[in-house]
Design a protein that fits this description.
The structure is a single chain. By secondary structure, this protein is of the alpha+beta class. The chain folds into three domains: about 200 residues, no CATH class; about 190 residues, Penicillin-binding protein 2a (Domain 2), CATH 3.90.1310.10; about 325 residues, 3-Layer(aba) Sandwich (Beta-lactamase), CATH 3.40.710. It is about 45% helix and about 15% strand. Strands 2, 3, 4, 5, 10, 18 and 19 form a seven-stranded mixed β-sheet that branches.
Length: about 800
């Protein structure tokens, strides 16, 4: 083995391999990291391709194996036996020939696997069937091609007993030029023509080498393995030379890939293969009946590819002149993309009209670097309706790109910004496809080389019922407020409305004008009042206070207080909404008539800390966990809270305010819905949930959200029954505050009206919480109308409309509503 490595022939062949390796390394150093993969699957791209790889290295392998096939015989001075003894010759030559073919196959197949193995996950592209078949054909055809040269090499070595004939094949090696990859049928004819031409050239080389051997025996001797007596130290210098060459090569690679990386990156523009992303459609969103709430539609989007732009000013100014876009906006988008490779397209304009598309297409050859793509655009068929539930999508910002949750996203990507779009981003976002294209010098697509189709996002099926949603939307139209309707048996949200709303289609379009409008609107349309608006609950809080007092035993069903229309505490006077008073009031009458004086007395008896404890048990002092982002929790104060927050003690007067849902009590409409559910279900409440299930684009189940019981408090059934009966009386007893505005003919509804001071000096807020049917609730609602004055006249009719939608009613004469709490 040592003799073999120190031979002149081995040094020459090693030098050839080093030169070839150096050439390949240089090409890779000047190109993108994925270029080796593209060598194997290049289609019609003019690159150093698989055919050249096989033609070049297959020939080199054949020469190396052929001229080393009978080294042992030469070393043993027995090549004459190989020539003269047929049996010996056949066994040696056949064995060496078969070993050479197997070795060649292993080398080629290993090369393909080593390159394509990491290449496929790196690019995310699986080669097409024709590409794979073409590669297989090249590998199969390569074997007889290499076998031909291997046989010639062995024949020359045996006949002439020296290796001077290596000069002929080496010359052919550098002259050989293979055509670019072609479709499979044409590839076979090309290979066949090459084999014929190679055979003819081999005959010519045979004659030249014969004469060379006769006339240049001394010259040819230097290519023979040296005699045994001369081996050893005489040729050991070759090992050092080989090591030196490898060191130089490594230094060169370091220089190309590390020190001169930026320069080589520019030279990589020779690579005209581009990987175009195919944006996956977001998942469709449906209501519980199958109505489409959000889908996608085609949109013409304009991109700039920075590395293809020859003159930035010319391209940018040209686009500004063609389209209705601002130059500063274009430059800002390009600046935001500076941290990404220059080959990544940057979206400049979205949803172009057909006229604009025609303008761009007519001028694209004068504006290198532009690319037009048809991509899915989010569409909300119901416009502003459901805007606070669905949310909206928009282009990812530079700040968001730096967040860990968006580490797999790229500049120009669309993400959910609000509502369900944000909450379920990872489910709604599909898997982008890829398209390998050949481009010209200006970056324009020439042909498609391969495609991986995108996979659409998952579908969301909501608990929302568009019939109920539309009823509430229309009732709140033109008003400010919020309403939420749910199934108390599961927590499934049937409707959720925050008014005023916004148009998610405008925000998805990226309209800066519209964004500025909604952002500066004093009515705050971007706020989801149902989960983010915290308001004094007013009299809707009284059932909780009554239940806390009953549970603590400080009052009973028969406890009464006299209401003269006011309550005096020290030097302060606290008034009842009914100036003439309610007379003798029990807990039942106190809730039905919403008597403030009764609850002033109850509040002092039960104390603020017990009220706070009941609120904690119901879960209305922390977020409910609804599947919408940005939920805020309410506040029910305690003596400890005031001391911790303000460093002050609690006063009895503050308890009076809390007892009627004023003062430091702040709750969201969603939390008050949970209070109604808790009472209607007699101590049980479920987590509110908007999404019922997630389904794949093919219809396969991905995730099902079962009801989650979040509140389960063991209450005295008699106490709960007292409160429930009173809430039933609010709607169904004469004198009840919602008797004239919410009573139904064939369905019994329970509820509680509320009027709360706004705290801004404006008109009072109007509240109504309800559930129906009273005995076995199937629907629960919480309605807020900002500055609506009275819950009985402004809020309770909305709850009535909801129940009528679910339980159609016969026509009945109207009863005047009381302007009550």
């Amino acid at each position: 083995m040592e003799d073999y490595f120190s031979s002149v022939r081995f040094v020459l062949i090693s030098a050839l391999i080093v030169v070839v390796g150096f050439a390949i390394a240089s090409i890779v150093g000047m190109a993108k990291p994925t270029l080796l993969f593209l060598y194997l699957f290049p289609s019609t791209v003019k690159l150093f391709s698989s055919s050249q790889f096989i033609g070049f290295f297959g020939l080199l392998i054949a020469i190396v194996l052929g001229f080393d096939a009978i080294n042992r015989e030469r070393a043993s001075r027995t090549p004459s036996k190989v020539v003269s003894q047929a049996i010996y010759r056949d066994s040696i030559i056949n064995g060496k020939f078969l070993a050479g073919i197997v070795t060649t196959g292993v080398i080629l197949v290993s090369s393909v696997l080593v390159i394509s193995g990491p290449g496929i996950p790196m690019l995310g592209i699986v080669p097409g069937s024709e590409e794979v078949l073409r590669l297989v054909v090249y590998l199969v055809v390569c074997l007889p091609y290499v076998a031909f040269w291997l046989g010639i090499s062995i024949l020359f070595s045996v006949v002439f007993k020296n290796t001077s004939t290596i000069l002929g094949p080496i010359e052919k090696l550098f002259q050989e030029r293979f055509q670019n990859p072609l479709p499979v049928g044409e590839s076979l004819s090309i290979v066949a023509s090459h084999v014929i031409s190679l055979f003819a050239l081999t005959l010519l080389c045979f004659g030249i080498c014969y004469l060379w051997t006769e006339d240049n025996s001394n010259l040819s001797r230097i290519y023979l393995r040296p005699p045994l007596s001369t081996r050893g130290k005489k040729y050991k210098w070759s090992n050092g030379m080989l090591v030196l060459v490898m060191i130089v090569l490594s230094m060169r690679l370091f220089d190309l890939q590390i020190l001169r990386g930026d320069e080589m990156k520019k030279l990589s523009e020779r690579n005209r293969v581009r990987i175009r992303r195919i944006v996956a459609p977001r998942g469709v969103i449906f209501d519980r009946t199958g109505k489409i709430l959000a889908n996608t539609r085609p949109s013409f989007n304009l991109y700039l590819v920075p590395e293809d732009i020859k003159d930035f000013s010319q391209t940018v100014d040209g686009l500004v002149a063609l389209l209705d876009i601002e130059r500063d906006d274009v430059l800002e988008k390009l600046r935001e993309a500076r941290d990404f490779p220059s080959s990544v397209p940057v979206r400049i304009a979205s949803d172009l009209s057909r006229d604009d598309v025609a303008k761009v297409e007519a001028n694209k050859f004068y504006l290198p670097g532009i690319a037009m793509q048809i991509e899915p655009r989010r569409n909300y068929p119901y416009g502003t309706m459901l805007s606070h539930v669905l949310g909206y999508v928009s282009e990812i910002s530079a700040e968001e790109l730096k967040m860990p949750r968006y580490k797999t996203y790229s500049v120009g990507d669309t993400i959910g910004k609000f509502g369900l779009e944000r909450m379920y981003e990872r489910y709604l976002r599909g898997v982008d496809g890829k398209r390998m294209v050949e481009v010209d010098a200006s970056g324009n697509d020439v042909r498609i080389l391969g495609t991986i189709e995108p996979v659409a996002g998952n579908r969301l099926y909501l608990n929302i019922d568009m019939g109920i949603q539309a009823t509430v939307e229309h009732a709140l139209e033109g008003k400010s407020g919020g309403a939420v309707v749910a199934d108390p048996r599961t927590g499934g949200v049937l409707a959720l409305v925050s008014s005023p709303a916004f148009d998610p289609n405008q925000l998805a379009a990226g309209s800066k004008t519209y964004w500025k409008t909604v952002l500066t609107d004093p009515s705050r349309p971007l706020q989801n009042r149902v989960i983010q608006g915290r308001y004094p609950p007013g009299s809707t809080f009284k059932p909780l206070v009554a239940l806390a007092a009953l549970e603590k035993g400080v009052i009973s069903e028969h406890t009464t207080f006299t209401c003269p229309g006011r309550f005096v505490l020290g030097r302060r006077v606290f008034k009842c909404w009914q100036k003439r008073g309610h007379g003798s009031v029990s807990v039942h009458k106190g809730i039905v008539r919403s008597c403030d004086v009764f609850f002033y007395n109850v509040g002092l008896k039960v104390g603020v800390d017990n009220i706070h404890e009941m609120a904690e048990n119901i879960g209305i002092t922390k977020p409910t966990g609804i599947d919408l982002p940005g939920e805020k929790s309410g506040l029910v104060p305690s003596t400890e809270w005031k001391k911790r927050t303000y460093g002050q003690k609690w006063y009895k007067g503050e308890t009076l305010s809390v007892a009627i849902g004023q003062g430091a009590v702040w709750l969201t409409p969603l939390e008050l819905m949970q209070l109604a559910s808790f009472i209607g279900n007699e101590g049980v409440a479920f987590k509110p949930r908007i999404v019922d299930r997630i389904v794949s684009p093919e219809g396969e189940p991905v995730k099902k959200f079962d009801p989650v019981m979040t509140i389960d408090v063991k209450l005295d059934k008699e106490n709960v029954a007292i409160v429930k009966e009173a809430m039933k009386g609010v709607v169904n007893e004469p004198g009840g505050t919602a008797y004239g505005s919410a009573r139904l003919q064939n369905v019994s509804m329970s509820g509680k009206t509320g009027t709360a001071q706004s705290g801004t000096g404006g008109a009072d807020h109007a509240w109504f919480i309800a559930y129906a049917p009273s005995d076995s609730p199937a629907v629960v609602a919480s309605i807020l109308v900002e500055h609506g004055l009275h819950g009985s006249s402004a809020a309770s009719p909305i709850a009535k409309a909801v129940v009528e939608t679910m339980f159609p009613q016969p026509e009945a004469p109207e009863t005047p509503a009381l302007n009550a709490h």
